[in-house]
Each structure stands twice: as structure tokens, then as C-alpha cells.
Q: What sequence folds into this?
């Protein structure tokens, strides 16, 4: 009797330790994959990184060339997306947090969450029919618009969450002093949530900088530096795609180097945000 | 003073309302555009579009089944691989690891989601595909070769490679949501179980049971992401619309078809077919995401998927 | 104190927005359409299409840009199908395709489209077979069998019969084909359709043929097919000769109409073109696969730049005609190094006439 009890007990203990090891193994596995991918990118990328590579434009195979115009293109389209998507997203987020406790707010919230999950290639098709066809050409404008649509719901939902974290006492205090609601939102609530919104926005920027699919038929690609939004525009991601799927080793090397730049940037943003929010979460 | 405040309030509120409404407007516009542009094939093929297995643009024959099959199977492979690992990570982070270890690990798992799709594709072509061709695939054929899934030509690109890449991409998403869901389970439940003499693992199983629908929501959310993933898949799946039992064989997905062929559809009916298959993708992801949201909300987890982008 | 931190936080958001606005506006000039370029100023041309001539076109636009700094030509190798679409949808200033446009597509344009041949090239069967040193010999029948799935292994009896001296391995063949709409596919399937009845019946000639399910893998562009072949042992794919050469992978000898196995080369492709020069129609649209004659490589093709005869913009039109003129004359010196073949002299004459016929609102673009 006591014996079986003991063996049951031991069995339970063994299962317990086994599961602890297993779950820890899962965590170790995922983190090692991350470290493996990142170090692989670093090793492959560093060897073909040079100042010329970072400033040059694509050249015929075998004549060198670089990703200068792709960096500028990615930056310009991301900037356009930020200019369009960030204010609207923040405004929508403020609406959801401050006025959105009704059926309309619920619908917007629901639709925003589903929009986040809609494949980005669909947004590319949407912008193709909406902007590229009427304009008669692929353009940085179309690419930036597609990225703005991807960014909008993300910013809206993070803004809403951040504003909800602002204590009600701050609002009430200001309202009690006779300030109109919009003043309270603009001068008290938004500033209080500002750093949270900013970090959310930075994560959204990191996300759209890595997007490829919505740019394929909207921004297309370009061999040149291009500072005008009405022309096709190169981007790091589309350039990586083209180089990676081609046969040329020199282009593969350039794909890895461009990836190092792209992933490096995205990781820096993520780590920076993590550093900023370390104390809060 | 009060007057200007009231007017200010009205203007402010209207601006905010317009911004919020723009989100609705965009989704409605996408839906309208897709329906409008897919009318030619909707009218001509009806439901046969979804069940036909031949995709021959030149003959104006459009059957979407191989793409639907490829999308579902690659996503299912991803789930089969990602769900146990994600659950393991989330349990480890919430239930077992001390916070000093849990924090950096949680952050690193989140970083997996920050790596762009095209980078996974690049890595898939040059690292994962050769690994599957030379090692993993050979191993599977040696030991599980009697299963129809692991028979036939082993090329390194195809359904399995796409599924594994997708698994890596959705693991951080599922992990993050499961973490939220587990954290939402009251500590008192754990304390009660522990007080009754349950081991830590037994306590965890109780917690898991109570969080079941939220976990289901996390899985469905991961499914939604896998279904819509484009670049990484198109780079490793082999772009061949076929329905084959072998996971080593190439296949194709809806998103990958659109990436490869949307730019070249000249005639109206071909363009319509591509947009209609895009509409299918749109509707499926919409429904899947909505379902995920409902499931996650039902356990009071953080329903916002914005945190898990 | 509290207020101070609040404003600091607010300022940080403001800075981010301002920065973004600054970056955004500095390059922003929406609405200034380049549809009408300013006279004398820089002209930018957008070209899109075939990947078959991508290496030579990239070389050309690069060299042409050096001597004409005012003209920048952006060529994107999106595939022949996409090139034809871009021309019809007017999202590009010129298109490019190896496969001449269909009558119905030309008619749908509403304005006359010119086919300007630029160079000749060969579609070669390139393969990734370790240990096979001598070039493989293929006939239209064995090529067709490989892509129909009738031949599954490299050591198939039919392949061995044509290659008795080769040590072909007992491995599965992985055929690689084009997943996008492609002029290279059109040339390849045109050859098989002309020579193999079973192919004609099951697949036929098309830019986007209906591949037999389960036979191979698809890839995008000549680049994509070549990349796939290079990455996959025991694979075979069809690409323009220059891609195989640049990647140091072999190309098979293909049996021609005269019954000889011929290597793709400048001479064998030129020989294929020579046979049909006299019979070239007025609009220059022609297929030269399976040509008659000795030493002919049978899967050869012209590749075309497609442009509207009447150009909507004078400066762009002038730039296009200048570029085309330069390409078929001065540009020819770059052709051989990239393993393409120059146009026959008679064809150059006819192309000159075509280029000179291009107008802007009825006014000729070139002083003759």
C-alpha cells in the first residue's frame, strides 16, 4: 500500500520534471533558431558589406552595384506611410479609447483587428486597382499608401491600449477644472500616453519596413535613385527577393548584405523599444 | 468659454470619428473592389471555381482547388509543428521560468516575429531547403518512408519546407497569445491546486484546461497568419499547383500565386480569376481572424492582436 | 514636475512625426506627372517585360546612360506576359517580349504597336548533374518526354540511347519550368509543339502553358529557373543561353530538323535566323524555332521591344527611338560577350525603317 503510493508519487514527480525539461527545451529551441538565423545573416552579410555597396545603384551582373537607391526607396515609402498612417491611426486610437464604448467603436475595433490579419498581398492588389491603374504607372506613392494601410490599424489599436493605461483620475481632475473634453484628450491624455504610442509606432514602422508583398505591384522596383513619389521605387525587400531567387552568386551575396542592413535596422528598433519599456512591463 | 469648448469638442470628436471610420471604409472598399473585379468569373464559373482542380489561364479554365489545398496543408503542417512548441514556450515562460530568465527568452521569441517574410524566404532557399534535401528529408524517408507523406522525389523545396518556415513564423504569435491567456488565469487557481498537493505540472494542466478556448484562439490566430503568408512561401514552395500526398512535392498557395502572376494578367477573365481567388483568401482570413478574436476574448485574454503583429 | 515629464513625452512623439514629415516632404512631389517631361530636361523611361534579354538590356541601358546622361532607362524584367500587360495598361513606356503579341491583344490596344527585334537568343536546356562531364544530347522527343513526365529518371533508356557514352545517374529528374507568363516558355513550347504530336495534343504552345500536374517545379523569370536549377541537384530547366553561361552550368545539344545535335552558339542561332529572313513578315513578328538547314540550333528566337508607333510624349518618344537606334548599331558590340546573336544585316535595315516610322502626334521623331 505504502509502496504503491510511493511509486505513484515518484511517477508524478518524474512527469513533473520531464515536462519542465520539455517546456524549457521548447524555449531553448526557439531562441537557438533565432540566434542561428541572426548569426547566419551577420556572417553572410558582413563579407559583402562596403560603403560603395551602401551607396551605389544596381549594375549589370558582374559589375558590382549596390543598394543605395533601395535604402532611400524603403525610407521614403516608410516615411510616406508614417505621414499618412500615423496621425490617422493615432486619431482612430484616441476615438476608440475615449469615445469608442459603443456599437460603432466595437465594430471599428473588430474590423481593425481583422484588417491587421488580412494578408498584405491583398492590400497590394487593392492599391494596384485603386492607385496604379488610374495613375498609369507603379509609384512610390502607391507603395507608401499600401504600407500606410498596413500601419493604420496597428497604430490605432496600440494607441487605444496606451490611452487606456492613462489613469482616469487625470482626466477627471482636468474636467473638474472646467477644461473641455477635447482639451483634456489633447493636452492631458495624449501626452501621458505619448511614450507608449511612440514605441507602438516604432514597432509598426519596423513591421512595414520589412514588407515585400504589398510593394511588388505597387512600387515595383527601380535601378535609379528616385526622389519623386510619382515614379516606380526600389525597396530593400523587393531587391532582396529579386537577388535571392536569381542564380548569380554575386547577387546572393548582395541579398545577404541587404538583409543584414534590413534585419539590423529592425532588430535595433525592437531592442530600443524594449529598452524604453523595460521598466513598465 | 464653455461655448468654444463645446464647438471644439464637436470638431475634435468629428476628426477622431472620421479617422476611426477610415478603417471601416478601407475594409469595405477592399471587399467591394474585389467582388466588383471578380464578377466575370463569379458569374461564369460559380461554385465550380472552388472545386475545379485545373488552373489553365491559357484555356480560360480556372479551378482554385490546388491552391486552396496547398494553402491549407502548408498551414496545417505549420500548426502541427508550431502549436506544441509554442505551448511549451508559453508554459515555460508563465508557469516555470523565474522572471529573470523568462523576460529575455520571451523577448527573443518575439523577435522571431520581427524578422521579415522575405528574409525567412532567403534563409529557406539557402539554408533550410538544402538541409531538408540532404538530411531531414533523407531521415524521414529512411524511418517514415512507408507513409505516403514522405515518399517520392526529394528536392528540398515544396510543401514541407514551406510548412516548416511557416511554423517558425507563427510560433512567436501563438506563444504571445497563449502567454497572455495563461497570465489571465487567476493565480488563486494555481495556489489552490498546489495547496492540494498537486505538482507544478499538474497545476499547469488545470490552468491549461481553464484557458482552453483562449489557447484555441491563439491557434486559430496562428492559422490565419499562416494562410496569408506570401513571400517566404512563394520562395520555397515550388509554385506548382498540384494535389499530392507527398510533402516533399512542390505545391502552391493562393498568396504565392498572386505574388507570381498578378502583374501579368492581361485579359479580363484571368484578372478576374486572380482577384476572385484573392477574395477567397480575404474572406477566409477575415473569418479566421474574427473567430480567433472571439475565442481569445472569451477567456479575457488580451484580445488585441496588434500586440502580436 | 508632472507637467514637465508629460511635455517631454509629448515632444518625443512630436519629434518623430516632424522627422517623418520632413523626410516625407523633402522628396514629395506628388502631382507633378512625368507623363509630360519638360523639353531639354532629364527623360526617364520605364521599360518592363522579358527576362530572356535581361542581361543585355541591363548592359545596354547602363552603357546608353553613360553617353546620354539626360536619359535614364529603367528596365524591369517582369516577364514577357507582364511586359505586354504593362504596355497595354500603359504602366510602362515600352514593353519587351520574346513572344510576339497576339492579334487580339494588338487590336485591343487601340493604337498601333511596333515589334522591334533587338537581338537573337537561344533557349537552352541547362542541367545540374554531378559527374556528367560531356554535354547531354537531347531531342525534341526526349525533352517532351521529360516535361510530360514520361521520362522520370536520368538513366532512362531513351536518354541513354542518345547519350551512350555518358554515365547518367539513377536519380529522379526535376524539371523546372516558368510559373509566370513567359516568352521563353512560348519559344520552348513552340518548338515542342512543332515537333512532337503528343506535346501538341497535351500542352501546346503558350506563354503560360498548362504544365502536366506533378512533373516539376515552377519558378519566376529566367533568373528564377536558373536559380532553381543551380540550387537543385538532378534538375533541368530551360533558359536563355547567357544565364547558363554566366552560371557555368552546361547546356544540352539539341537535335535539329536536319538530325544533328547542335550546341547553342552565336553561329547556330544566326543560322536559325538566316533561314527565315527572306520570309519575315512586314510587322517583323516571327517564330524561328525548328528552322531548316545545317548547323541550326532549333530553339532560337528573336526578342522584341514593344512600343506604340505614335508616341504620346515627344521627349520620351525621341528617347525611345534614340535608344533603339543605338542598341541595334552601337549596342551590338556588347551582344556577343553576353552570348546573344546580333540581328542579321537585312533585319537591321528593316528595323531602321520601323524606328524611323515612329511619330509623336504624327510628327516623325527621328530626322532621317
A:
Amino acid at each position: 500500500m505504502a509502496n504503491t503510493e510511493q511509486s505513484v508519487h515518484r511517477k508524478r514527480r518524474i512527469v513533473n520534471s520531464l515536462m519542465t525539461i520539455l517546456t524549457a527545451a521548447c524555449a531553448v529551441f526557439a531562441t537557438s533558431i533565432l540566434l542561428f538565423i541572426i548569426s547566419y545573416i551577420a556572417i553572410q552579410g558582413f563579407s559583402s558589406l562596403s560603403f560603395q555597396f551602401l551607396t551605389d545603384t544596381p549594375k549589370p551582373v558582374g559589375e558590382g552595384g549596390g543598394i543605395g537607391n533601395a535604402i532611400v526607396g524603403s525610407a521614403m515609402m516608410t516615411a510616406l506611410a508614417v505621414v499618412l498612417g500615423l496621425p490617422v491611426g493615432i486619431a482612430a486610437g484616441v476615438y476608440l479609447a475615449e469615445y469608442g464604448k459603443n456599437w460603432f467603436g466595437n465594430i471599428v475595433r473588430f474590423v481593425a483587428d481583422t484588417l491587421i490579419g488580412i494578408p498584405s498581398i491583398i492590400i497590394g492588389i487593392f492599391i494596384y486597382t485603386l492607385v496604379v491603374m488610374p495613375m498609369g504607372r507603379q509609384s512610390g506613392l502607391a507603395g507608401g499608401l499600401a504600407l500606410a494601410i498596413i500601419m493604420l490599424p496597428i497604430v490605432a489599436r496600440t494607441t487605444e491600449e496606451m490611452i487606456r493605461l492613462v489613469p482616469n483620475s487625470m482626466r477627471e481632475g482636468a474636467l473638474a477644472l472646467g477644461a473641455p473634453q477635447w482639451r483634456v484628450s489633447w493636452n492631458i491624455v495624449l501626452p501621458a500616453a505619448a511614450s507608449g504610442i511612440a514605441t507602438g509606432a516604432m514597432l509598426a514602422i519596423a513591421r512595414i519596413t520589412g514588407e515585400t508583398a504589398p510593394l511588388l505591384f505597387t512600387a515595383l522596383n527601380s535601378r535609379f535613385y528616385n526622389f519623386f513619389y510619382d515614379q516606380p521605387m526600389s525597396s530593400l525587400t523587393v531587391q532582396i527577393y529579386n537577388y535571392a531567387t536569381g542564380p548569380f552568386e554575386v547577387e546572393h551575396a548582395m541579398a545577404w548584405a541587404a538583409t543584414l542592413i534590413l534585419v539590423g535596422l529592425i532588430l535595433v528598433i525592437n531592442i530600443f523599444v524594449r529598452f524604453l519599456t523595460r521598466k513598465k512591463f | 468659454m464653455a461655448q468654444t469648448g463645446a464647438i471644439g469638442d464637436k470638431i475634435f470628436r468629428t476628426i477622431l470619428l472620421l479617422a476611426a471610420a477610415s478603417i471601416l471604409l478601407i475594409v469595405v472598399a477592399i471587399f467591394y473592389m474585389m467582388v466588383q473585379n471578380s464578377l466575370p468569373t463569379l458569374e461564369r464559373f460559380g461554385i465550380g471555381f472552388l472545386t475545379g482542380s485545373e488552373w489553365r489561364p491559357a484555356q480560360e479554365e480556372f479551378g482554385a482547388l490546388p491552391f486552396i489545398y496547398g494553402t491549407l496543408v502548408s498551414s496545417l503542417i505549420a500548426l502541427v509543428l508550431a502549436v506544441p512548441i509554442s505551448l511549451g514556450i508559453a508554459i515555460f515562460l508563465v508557469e516555470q521560468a523565474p522572471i529573470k530568465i523568462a523576460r529575455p527568452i520571451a523577448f527573443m521569441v518575439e523577435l522571431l516575429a520581427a524578422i521579415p517574410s522575405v528574409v525567412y524566404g532567403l534563409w529557406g532557399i539557402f539554408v533550410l531547403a538544402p538541409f531538408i534535401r540532404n538530411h531531414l528529408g533523407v531521415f524521414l524517408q529512411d524511418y517514415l518512408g512507408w507513409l505516403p507523406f514522405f515518399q517520392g522525389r526529394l528536392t528540398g523545396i515544396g510543401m514541407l519546407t514551406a510548412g516548416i518556415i511557416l511554423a517558425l513564423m507563427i510560433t512567436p504569435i501563438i506563444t504571445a497569445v497563449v502567454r497572455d491567456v495563461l497570465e489571465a488565469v487567476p493565480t488563486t487557481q494555481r495556489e489552490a491546486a498546489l495547496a492540494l498537493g498537486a505538482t507544478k505540472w499538474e497545476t499547469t494542466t488545470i490552468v491549461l484546461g481553464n484557458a482552453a478556448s483562449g489557447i484555441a484562439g491563439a491557434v486559430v490566430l496562428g492559422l490565419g497568419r499562416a494562410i496569408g503568408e506570401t513571400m517566404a512561401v512563394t520562395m520555397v514552395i515550388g509554385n506548382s499547383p498540384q494535389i499530392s500526398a507527398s510533402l516533399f512535392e512542390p505545391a502552391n498557395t493562393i498568396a504565392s500565386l498572386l505574388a507570381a502572376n498578378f502583374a501579368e494578367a492581361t485579359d479580363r477573365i484571368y484578372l478576374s480569376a486572380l482577384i476572385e481567388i484573392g477574395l477567397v483568401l480575404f474572406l477566409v482570413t477575415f473569418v479566421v481572424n474574427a473567430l480567433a478574436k472571439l475565442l481569445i476574448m472569451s477567456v479575457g485574454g488580451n484580445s488585441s492582436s496588434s500586440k502580436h503583429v | 514636475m508632472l507637467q514637465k515629464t508629460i511635455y517631454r513625452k509629448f515632444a518625443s512623439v512630436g519629434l518623430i512625426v516632424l522627422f517623418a514629415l520632413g523626410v516625407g516632404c523633402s522628396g514629395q512631389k506628388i502631382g507633378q506627372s512625368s507623363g509630360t517631361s519638360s523639353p531639354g530636361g532629364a527623360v526617364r523611361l520605364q521599360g518592363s517585360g522579358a527576362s530572356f534579354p535581361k542581361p543585355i538590356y541591363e548592359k545596354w541601358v547602363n552603357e546608353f546612360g553613360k553617353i546620354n546622361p539626360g536619359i535614364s532607362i529603367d528596365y524591369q524584367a517582369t516577364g514577357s506576359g507582364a511586359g505586354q500587360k504593362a504596355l497595354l495598361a500603359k504602366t510602362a513606356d515600352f514593353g519587351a517580349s520574346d513572344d510576339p503579341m497576339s492579334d487580339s491583344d494588338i487590336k485591343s490596344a487601340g493604337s498601333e504597336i511596333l515589334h522591334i527585334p533587338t537581338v537573337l537568343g537561344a533557349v537552352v536546356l541547362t542541367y545540374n548533374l554531378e559527374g556528367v562531364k560531356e554535354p547531354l544530347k537531347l531531342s525534341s522527343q526526349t525533352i517532351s518526354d521529360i516535361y510530360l513526365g514520361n521520362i522520370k529518371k536520368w538513366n532512362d533508356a531513351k536518354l541513354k540511347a542518345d547519350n551512350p557514352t555518358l554515365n547518367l545517374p539513377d536519380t529522379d529528374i526535376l524539371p523546372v519550368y516558368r510559373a509566370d507568363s513567359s516568352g521563353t516558355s512560348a519559344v520552348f513550347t513552340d518548338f515542342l509543339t512543332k515537333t512532337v504530336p503528343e506535346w501538341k495534343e497535351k500542352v501546346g504552345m503558350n506563354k503560360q502553358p498548362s504544365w502536366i500536374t506533378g512533373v516539376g517545379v515552377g519558378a519566376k523569370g529566367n533568373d528564377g529557373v536558373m536559380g532553381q536549377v543551380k540550387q537543385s541537384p538532378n534538375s533541368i530547366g530551360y533558359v536563355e543561353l547567357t544565364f547558363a553561361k554566366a552560371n557555368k552550368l552546361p547546356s544540352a545539344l539539341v537535335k535539329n530538323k536536319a538530325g544533328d545535335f547542335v550546341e547553342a552558339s552565336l553561329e547556330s542561332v544566326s543560322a536559325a535566323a538566316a533561314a527565315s529572313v527572306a520570309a519575315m513578315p512586314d510587322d517583323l513578328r516571327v517564330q524561328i524555332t525548328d528552322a531548316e538547314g545545317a548547323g541550326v540550333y532549333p530553339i532560337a528566337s528573336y526578342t522584341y521591344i514593344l512600343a506604340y508607333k505614335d508616341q504620346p510624349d515627344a521627349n520620351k518618344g525621341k528617347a525611345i527611338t534614340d535608344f533603339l537606334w543605338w542598341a541595334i548599331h552601337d549596342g551590338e558590340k556588347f551582344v556577343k560577350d553576353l552570348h546573344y546573336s546580333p540581328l542579321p544585316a537585312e533585319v537591321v535595315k528593316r528595323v531602321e525603317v520601323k524606328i524611323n516610322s515612329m511619330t509623336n502626334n504624327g510628327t516623325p521623331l527621328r530626322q532621317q
Summary: Strands of chain B lie at 55-56, 61-62. The longest strand of chain B covers residues 55-56.
